[in-house]
């Protein structure tokens, strides 16, 4: 199985040196000065990981994913002067990409409903073994979720957002966020159960 491109495996933290950090500094400064070759280099380095994040939310919509990728990099290049070199550059880019995806979802998902307080279900799946499912199969099952459930699931599980933060990002209340997460878990539990039986 090929390793997914993520921000953390572009340049592992253990292999970063002062020269790499200074290269990043120079690259960012060149991008701020509107050097097109520097902008292309930055895009080529970080676009694959950014696209991977976007596809986690919009698995079947390549057109929207490409639009969001372009919007994300437009924001990255226009806000590059705001990057202070204090935190991880990859984390700064990730935040912009996730915010751009959630902006898209907020504008385009129409099935937002009001839901009552929900008690979380336990994640136990009876029968076969989840360990027998490969990563790709689990990812395929996750991507069968409806858009809002998929968005909330991704934000909660992969991005570690709280229900309050998810509510703010997607313009829903915390109870809706909890409901969508529990509905996503319930649906995944059913799908996994049917696959492993």
Explained architecture:
By secondary structure, this protein is mainly α. It has helices at 18-32, 36-57, 62-79, 89-108, 135-142, 147-158, 163-170, 174-196. It is 64% helix and 0% strand. The model is unreliable at 1-5 and 112-128 (pLDDT under 50).
Topology of helices and strands:
Blueprint: H1 18-32, H2 36-57, H3 62-79, H4 89-108, H5 135-142, H6 147-158, H7 163-170, H8 174-196
Helix pairs in contact: 1-2, 2-3, 2-4, 3-4, 6-8, 7-8
Q: Which descriptors would you attach to this protein?
A:
197 residues, disordered N terminus, Rna Polymerase Sigma Factor, Chain: A, mainly alpha, Arc Repressor Mutant, subunit A
Any idea of the CATH class of the largest domain?
Mainly Alpha
C-alpha end-to-end distance? 24 Å
CATH-assigned homologous superfamily of the largest domain? RNA polymerase sigma factor, region 2, helix turn helix motif
Total strands: 0
TL;DR of this structure?
By secondary structure, this protein is mainly alpha-helical. It has 8 helices and no strands.
């Amino acid at each position: 199985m090929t390793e997914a491109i993520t921000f953390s495996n572009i340049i592992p933290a253990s292999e970063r040196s002062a020269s790499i950090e200074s290269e990043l500094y120079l690259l960012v400064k060149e991008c701020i000065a509107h050097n097109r070759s520097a902008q292309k280099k930055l895009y080529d380095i970080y676009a694959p990981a950014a696209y991977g994040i976007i596809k986690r939310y919009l698995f079947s919509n390549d057109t929207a994913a490409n639009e969001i990728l372009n919007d994300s990099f437009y924001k990255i290049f226009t806000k590059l002067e705001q990057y202070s070199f204090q935190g991880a550059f990859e984390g700064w880019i990730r935040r912009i990409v996730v915010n751009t995806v959630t902006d898209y979802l907020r504008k385009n998902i129409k099935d937002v409903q009001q839901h009552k307080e929900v008690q979380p279900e336990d994640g136990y799946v009876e029968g076969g073994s989840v360990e027998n499912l490969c990563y790709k199969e689990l990812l395929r099952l996750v991507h069968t979720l409806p858009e809002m459930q998929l968005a909330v699931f991704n934000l909660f599980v992969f991005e570690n957002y709280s229900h309050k933060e998810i509510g703010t990002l997607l313009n829903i209340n915390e109870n809706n966020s909890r409901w969508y997460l529990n509905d996503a878990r319930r649906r995944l539990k059913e799908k996994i159960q049917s696959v492993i039986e």
